[in-house]
Amino acid sequence: MTTDLTKPDESGATGATEISGAEIVLEDVVKRYPGQKVPAVQSLSLTIPAGEIVMFIGPSGCGKTTSLKMINRLIEPTSGTIRIDGEDIGGQSENHLRRKIGYVIQGGSLFPHMTVGKNIAIVPKLLGWDQARIDKRIDELLDLVSLDPSRYRDRYPRELSGGQQQRVGVARGLAADPPVILMDEPFGAVDPITRQRLQDELLSIQRELRKTIVCVTHDIDEAIKLGDRILILEEGAKIAQYDTPEVILAAPANDFVADFVGSGSSLKQLTLTRITDVELRKPTTATIGEQVTVVKERAEANGDRSVIVLDARGRPVGWPWLRQLKGEVVHEPTEDLVNLDHRATLNDALDTMLSSSHGGAVVTGDRDQYLGVVDFASVTDYIRTMEAEAGE
User: Fold this and answer.
1) CB atoms within 10 A of CB 121
2) Is 274 helix (H, G, I), strand (E, B) or coil?
3) Taking a C-beta distance cutoff of 8 angstroms, is the pair 231, 46 a contact?
4) What is the pLDDT of residues 184-207, one digit of tens each?
């Protein structure tokens, strides 16, 4: 069954979305390779709640990727039980199981000889969907990951940037509407700005779909930002701590966790603080096709030297200075505007602002709907308030 994607309200946030994910339970799961004295995974037991993002993290060789791959049986457990939505996966055929689990890896892993649309359609075709339903799903998912279907549906992977390929990889993982998505270092091969945007995209998608997402990462900041819960593993996939980011930062379970999180854990609290906690500024906006003279008069009356340009769907596409507005009507700017999702962190906001000539960052809600601008003044005011409250 294909999920009906919840539409955003005027604030950019969706209403309460029904959980479409499934609970995953691992009981005494062991993976021992031939000739290995110590198992790669030793008696791993945990419950991953339906509809949450759980981040697996730990040092190299700790068994986090092995643990992830046992959930879809890319690696067969030596012993133990894994249940998805109460059903033992060991009693299912591998193909049947994997068609119900989305899998997203680093770089998107797209088939180079297939168009974007055909890459996304792979699992729905295996499931016997009719072509009209597949075509509708392709367009729906490309829109969800902020790629215009009319522009990208018929392109080949070589014609996409790394970030675009990764978005298509996420869309392919969601194609058959699986309750569980497994992600193995999904954003590790892209530059920091693209990585931040893809993280924001994942948070936005999860607000709408409420899947159960299990994600391996080596980046503690990424784990804190994305995870509803974080699983920190020691060698042999021994659980060092499994809890919310807030608890892990405030109360590490032991010295291993404290060392792994790092001495800057107080600064990492900024990674827990979302832009939604900060007051947004509302500068002058303009719509593509609007008269330039009218826009300039409105901006000058508001005391603004620049405007946020929106497209017909209310999505920000540019932030030009008034002197850059030429001709009779407002055209779509040519520069690539870096937006921040409203659930991005203050760390993300500060990073984006440092590269902006405006001293601020454009903030969007679901489906990239424009919400406002976060600036240095609002962020620093919030930090001062946090420090004062901590002092008290």
Assistant:
1) 21
2) strand
3) yes
4) 998 887 788 788 888 988 998 898
Q: Report the alpha-carbon distance of residue 284 to residue 302 in Å, rounded.
A: 7
Which CA distances in Å does 139 have to 38, 195, 200?
Answer: 48, 23, 20
pLDDT bin (cut points 50, 70, 90) of residue 293 is very high
> pLDDT tens digit string along 19-43?
889 999 999 999 999 988 889 999 9
Length of the chain in residues, anyone? Answer: 392
Do the beta carbons of residue 33 and residue 40 sit within 8 Å? yes
- DSSP H helical ranges for the chain: 64-71, 94-98, 116-120, 122-126, 131-144, 149-152, 162-174, 192-209, 220-226, 245-250, 255-261, 269-272, 292-302, 346-354, 376-391
Is 217 in contact with 54 (CB distance < 8 Å)? Answer: no
Residue 152 corresponds to which tokens in the numbers above? 């990208």
β-pairing, 316-318 vs 308-310, is: antiparallel
Q: Note whether 319 and 341 are within 8 A (CB).
A: no
Q: Specify whether the CB–CB gap between 52 and 21 falls below 8 A.
A: yes
Residue 209 to residue 69: CA distance in whole angstroms? 23
The CB-side HSE value for 17 (13 A sphere, CA atoms) comes to: 24
What is the C-alpha radius of gyration for the chain, rounded to an integer number of angstroms?
A: 23
Conformational region of residue 42, where left means phi above 0, alpha means psi within -120 to 50, and beta covers everything else: beta
DSSP β-ladder status, 238-243 and 229-234: antiparallel
Which two three-digit tokens encode residue 140? 């729906």
How many CB atoms are located within 10 Å of the residue 52 CB?
20
Strands 79-84 and 238-243, bridge-based pairing: unpaired
Rounded Cα distance, 282 and 296, in Å: 16
Domains of the chain: 24-263 (3.40.50.300), 276-387 (3.10.580.10)
